[in-house]
Amino acid sequence: MKYHESTIVVRYAETDQMGIVYHANYLVWMEIGRTDFLESIGLRYFDMEQEGYISPVLDVHISYKQAMKYGQKAVVKTWIKSYDGFRIVYGYEIRQEGGSEIHISGETEHIAVRKADFKPVSTRRAFPAWHEAYLEAMKS
């Protein structure tokens, strides 16, 4: 299985008055991890959107184990947790750079839809290159 790691510098604007990362910002970091992961396997959401499709989030799960703080560097590890030709679930783990303890774990579930009417489409049929890249990333 292919994994990709993205490093994020915890910015002051992402924290609360106590210097702790505001919980919703982890979703932004997961999105950064996901788009970086896709680029690492040769795919870009931009290309999908140029063809008239988008990939909305259907479901999100996050487990907050330990807060990240201002001044730290976070490493977002991203991979494909499951894919069935239609739905794709990405897995995430966020750790402090250089650390082994997981601070945040989570997953997001997505499908591809036509931008014009939000009608779901089969990734396998509409985006065969994406389908093959997903399968390859899951086995490598």
Please explain how this structure is put together:
By secondary structure, the chain is of the alpha+beta class. The protein has a single domain, classed as Thiol Ester Dehydrase, Chain A. The chain is built from four helices and eight strands, in the order βααβββββββαα. It has helices spanning 25-40, 45-50, 123-126, 128-139; strands spanning 3-9, 53-54, 57-64, 73-83, 88-96, 102-110, 112-114, 120-121. It has a five-stranded antiparallel β-sheet. It has a three-stranded antiparallel β-sheet with strand order 2-7-8. It is elongated. It starts with a strand and ends with a helix. The mean pLDDT is 96. It comes from Listeria newyorkensis. InterPro entries: 4-hydroxybenzoyl-CoA_TE, HotDog_dom_sf, YbgC/YbaW. This is Acyl-CoA thioester hydrolase. Keywords: Hydrolase. Belongs to the 4-hydroxybenzoyl-CoA thioesterase family.
